[in-house]
Design goal:
Elements lengths: L1 H5 L2 E3 L4 E3 L3 H8 L4 H15 L8 H6 L16 H13 L3 H5 L2 H13 L9
Length: about 120
């Protein structure tokens, strides 16, 4: 959408038109990348589960052991693996302890959002 709004750019020195790269667009707009937004929302939703009662469905599903084997090729990342990596990036090694305290968890997510910790650098 931003690419459409900003449109092609004319370079006076080279006298030609060119289309902005993703890196240039995000630098000019100063908005978080979609990857960072997904990571932040994934952590935010995961933070609710440990504080839930044991009989709630989301907690039972998250703690459930499916008892199936994985395929032989390279194992695909599971949702839980991605959350674990995001938590390590945002909160260091002790991020799981902060998850049980709601105020600490909100503070961690706010810090990650404000400092753009979860936003992967664009290449």
């Amino acid at each position: 959408m931003y690419r459409r709004i900003l449109g092609p750019v004319y370079d006076n020195e080279k006298e030609n038109w060119w289309i902005l790269t993703n890196k240039e667009i995000y630098a000019s707009v100063k908005k978080p990348t979609i990857i960072g937004t997904i990571r932040l929302n994934r952590l935010r939703s995961f933070g609710h589960v440990p504080r839930m009662e044991e009989n709630r469905i989301p907690k039972r599903v998250l703690c459930m052991n499916w008892g199936t084997t994985r395929l032989r090729s390279r194992p695909r990342n599971r949702w839980h693996d991605e959350v674990r990596e995001d938590g390590r990036i945002a909160g260091g090694e002790k991020w799981q302890e902060k998850m049980h305290n709601r105020e600490e968890w909100k503070k961690l997510l706010r810090m990650a959002r404000n400092r753009h910790i979860l936003h992967m650098p664009m290449e």
